[in-house]
């Protein structure tokens, strides 16, 4: 068995196959496992290529971590559902107590500051309407259309729904799928209390799951080869798959054969490999893959003196491009990892406009935004900064988007990735679920 791509989907697929007793070869072109959620080397220090939040609803991911022997209590900081803006910034303060659902949301709503009575009634109306509808729409529409249809106030949309949509779908509300948004809310806000918990990684993203997966695979007789790029795939008489591989990990160029292959690269790479398979019609699935519109995420790291500390592990921020306020969330990395004292990570989702700016211009604008919003003048002058943009962090989760299935239509060849058909947008949970599904199609097929 071969798995092409060592991101979270590929690692999940390889672990599932190894668990079923198969000897797996995991091939990753990069030197570090993790795909679009990984550790990278920079000229400053090792950093994640983006700051992530997991949810308590990510059952497949949390179950996989347990299987790999990762203690989630040590690896993840668990916080109750919250949307907290810096005091006096013009935002809101919403935090759910650790009470049984749905009481935790009711109490949070009653205690919320920065929302008028009309705003709170609007949020209660959204929740009751969604539950009454079973979190299901007869026809998909944009998140903006849904919010208007369900009479959501301007203030609540600005402070709650828009930032949640950007964080979950990495797509602006006017272009984002309302049904996919409802799916995420159903499994978090609409489920048990712990499902809405927000989980912040303490470990770097490669260590959190991919490297543990590599150890698991190796312990079961499999192999993990980084720096091994698959250049071509060929089907041999409908029975075997020939992979042409290059890279230092395989000593130059190498070809080998497998009975089954899970193609777990990014969507564009998958389309390129599928399109080039001789004598196989992959046009339909390639069309779906190439139709996916990439969306960028930018994370700006700013290093301050070690004694700089926020009052909370993270805050939401009011973004406004007209005022050069680009940041949407800020995380105090020092509260997650003792070795990162004074390091703040600011996230910008759907970041095309921000990413087009010169990095120094963007970093200085973010530092000024932090200093003003948090009322901490010292944040105006970081010791150093690092701007990291993943241009293809996700795809645009638009209404009615047709995503390819795990099945490629070719015998023994499966797809895995956060872009395959499923209820979630391009998230770590979506990737893990896809990888597990692709592997199970082999083990159960």
Poorly predicted runs: none
Outline the biggest β-sheet: 5 strands, parallel
Shape: globular
Q: Find the count of extended strands (DSSP E, 2+ residues).
A: 20
Average pLDDT:
96
Write a concise keyword list for the protein shown above.
5-stranded parallel beta sheet; globular; alpha+beta; 5-stranded antiparallel beta sheet; 445 residues; 22% strand; 34% helix; 20 strands
What does this structure look like?
There is one protein chain. The chain has 445 residues and is α+β, with helices and mostly antiparallel strands. The chain is built from 15 helices and 20 strands. It has helices spanning 8-19, 59-67, 72-75, 103-111, 117-132, 143-149, 154-169, 178-188, 205-208, 210-219, 267-275, 283-291, 352-355, 359-373, 428-443; strands spanning 2-4, 25-28, 39-41, 46-48, 54-55, 76-79, 82-84, 93-95, 198-201, 223-226, 229-236, 240-247, 252-258, 261-263, 294-303, 314-316, 329-332, 343-349, 384-395, 413-415. The chain has a 5-stranded parallel beta sheet with strand order 10-2-1-14-20, with helices on one face. The protein starts with a strand and ends with a helix.
